[in-house]
């Protein structure tokens, strides 16, 4: 695809009309990617960090899978339509987005389940070192999963949750594994993956990175950082659809020494041998458990295929351009008082997300959503806006800020309907 990007540096001179942002879109070499997504007319979608939009090609692919592969092919499709290889085939495609090699990523289960599998294997491999070290602001499900492992293993596992600034100093010789989420889901802050992985290795620990807000949003170089283990989500920036299967990565050098405790037949060296003893498959496939969800897998693969041929450096540069211009517009146009930009100003330490806090953040976000500007809310007071390089436009940045200014000026957020919380925020 194209190799041009609007000159973002120029933007700090101030761009003051929607037309300036339309011009940025005209200069954007990735602009043609947007037509591959079925985004409703008039909607400014800035929540791809929670649920990516529907690719245009997905309904047709699912229809084909249902009617031809399942309807006509029936059980033959496990072989003939390549269903049985989907977890590793789609895994290899994701590997290209996160700096991993072929044979190191497999698509399976949910992020939470995959994290449990890898933590259990890592703690067992580093036997005698019981600690899973992590930080207070980690994603809650990751903390719950590690807590569950601690409850199961008793004295053989201790979850230690410390403040972010304390992490390097707490990498003692009792730590089996350092478990971190690369991009903070609240603030969008990005960890230094290379430095923290190196520090963990110096201390004799393994690392497991959660890439749920990273793959498809920011550069990730698992090999360059010598990462041991990783997990990530398929339904956010990868656009696999609600509840899409997740993925896990195991560095090749570790694959044969890690035990898959959630040992299911799909992770067996030869599932169709039907022997009574589990022999783990040689590669990353040993971390499969049960039968893959082929419908969801096909939706994810269709979405991942949209990355084929995309210049990744340009994509990451575009995400930074979108978030930088959003922050600049917020700073120049938002009313003073109440709002605070909590995401890092330095674009190198920021994911493809900008979070702003306001004591009435929940109600303000509801008013924005009613104007078809869709972001989301996280307690206690965070409004989150995600900017995906394949489909977010620069005019979306302008329109989001324009609507936010109007919501505040018209005090639209004070409507009584916004006082009660919906189930999914
Ligand atoms: C979204 C997300 C998850 C999701 O986990 P599931 O088990 O797939 O629901 C896990 N970790 C992080 C950091 C996330 O952002």
In brief:
This protein has helices at 18-26, 58-72, 77-80, 86-95, 111-125, 140-153, 193-202, 252-255, 294-304, 312-333, 361-370, 394-409, and strands at residues 44-45, 105-108, 131-135, 158-162, 175-181, 206-210, 229-232, 246-250, 340-341, 353-357, 373-374, 376-378, 382-386.
Q: So how many helices?
A: 12
Low-confidence runs: 8-13
Residue share in helix? 25-40%
Strands ordered across the widest β-sheet: 2-8-7-6-5-3-4
Order of helices and strands: HEHHHEHEHEEHEEEHHHEEHEEEH
Please tell me the overall pLDDT. 95
The major pleated sheet works out as:
7 strands, mixed
Question: How would you sum up this structure, described in words?
Answer:
By secondary structure, the chain is an alpha/beta fold. The chain is about 35% helix and about 15% strand. It has twelve helices and 13 strands. The strands form three sheets. It has a seven-stranded mixed beta sheet, with helices on both faces. Strands 9-10-13-12 form a four-stranded antiparallel beta sheet, covered by helices on one side. Helix 6 links the parallel strand 3 and strand 4. About 0% of the residues have low confidence. Bound molecules: pyridoxal-5'-phosphate. Pyridoxal-5'-phosphate binds next to helix 5 and helix 6.
